[in-house]
User: Fold Transketolase-like pyrimidine-binding domain-containing protein from Amanita thiersii Skay4041.
Amino acid sequence: MSFPVDLKQFKKLSLDPSKPQLTAEQKATLLANIQLLRDAIVFFTATGAARGVSGHTGGAYDTVPEVCLLLSLFNHSNKFHPVVFDEAGHRVATQYILAALEGSLSTEQLLHYREANSRLPGHPELGLTPGVKFSSGRLGHMWPMVNGVALAHKDQTVFCLGSDGSQQEGNDAEAARLAVAQGLNVKLLIDDNDVTIAGHPSQYLKGYDVARTLEGHGLKVVTVQGEDIDALWGGLCSILQHNGPAAIISKRKMAPGIPDIEGSTHGHDVIPVKSAIKYLQNRGFGDYTDFYTSIKAQGHGYTYMGSSKDLGANRVVFGDAVNLVLDKLSKEEAVKKVMVIDSDLEGSTGLKGIHQKHPEVFIPSGIMERGNFSAAAGFGFDADKFGVFSTFSAFLEMVISEVTMARLNHCNVLCHFSHAGVDEADNTCHFGVNNFFADNGLEDTHSYLYFPADASQMIAIVQRVFFERGLRFVFSTRSKVPWILKENGKRFFEDNYKFVPGKDDVIAEGTDGYVVSYGEMLYRAYDAVLRCRQEGLNVGLINKSTLNIIDEQTIKKIGQTKFVLVVETQNHKTGLGSKFGTWLLERQLTPKYAYMGTTKEGCGGLWEQIPYQGLDPQCGLFSSG
Assistant:
């Protein structure tokens, strides 16, 4: 179908920042442009909801007024660096609408938002999407880079869109100090809508104030009502008159003008299809129910052998497993021994269940991974106290130094890093493929990395290791996984199963060779193994749920066969496969050896990430291996 919002109606406007008052004609043009782009963003981001790939609507919708004003400045003078840098990568719809305005993308392409292989992933990726001018997606990383852009272009003003969420990151504090110290011509336009993924900063992070924080660092700050275009333009003109870094703080509700999600945390995510239909009808676009209904979620249509049809969400089950431990303690004992701290992701990493059932041990906190991890470590500094920390596996890379110091201080921390690997990952910036970075201690210190294969093993692992001392890392995926089944159809990790740290599980015995896998790849590997066995290849399967500890008995068993193949979604350069061959050789075990892992940037979509990396049994690579 043709795109119903006619972007050709967008009128180019040139605004002179020395004239802080808009004329009636300028204001009318701006308001029309704002409404046009907001309608377009609602329309195409809702296709992500329709195809079941999620997305984000509210943030990009919010900042359209700021974007329109920046475009008018770019049209006015080359003294303004013509890139709309954005700290919040989830506001990627902004970059896609800008690419469409400049002709790099067609409006019809926008209708494939977040679809696999559409080149329209959930965060901007430089070099992937035509018209996208930078990569973003991990909060706190853009402003420091923009400082560098300003140092490289001292004759231009450089702009960066920010948010009250991204400003919570410690990187931004460092960026502020550098910008002030060097007098950088960086201007921030910050959407302060008091909404992040898990709630409202004014409630879970009392005392946090974006304007006061930036003023304390020495920036000039102007606060306005973001939906008042006259005030917004006047404030922008004011900070442009200032010689040095400055910020305009736009106060507004999340997703203003969309009744179903306005001011709520739901506005952070993709707009529900029903809400989009209602919005578009109210805007006079007609009824698009049939259009959105015609968009279907794409399934792989493959039936895996060796695992259940029903699925479990390990990232959620982690919280259930912790609750099973806490249920055995009195509230007084739990408060004394355990502290669970969130980084604005409780609904995504399983901590929400702990928050609801055991609020006495739960601390809601902001988007401050380094500080929150260290707080959990500090709580666990006493021998009989235990901190619990959780975030996405991609953000493990942000806390490596803190992990080292926690280890040196003999702290007790149970870490849950969800969204590991690439299965259903929100594309490359959210790939959790360097989990082995957590194993950065010296040979005389052990940190345990656990990656359960299904929900039952997740429960077994958490219950077994919760009160062990030191650093323990538990990984899960964004995707749901089936239960691993025995030959008799019963769940492998239930009944009398007991998890033993460092002990590998023999899922299937083999004489010709073995596949070694774990996590979300185990059920896929099991399917390949069973199909190979049907073809006469007697191959076995090992579940290496303790990733970084060698099970001497198991490695000897498999190393004496003809071949060993490690299959995982971790980085091919840093994962288990990059180490396992060395472990074999150190023991004079010389089977044919190969390993498979993630090797390239993502394709978008959900489950499609696995075959795109050549890791699914349908690819036929296990058999050829």
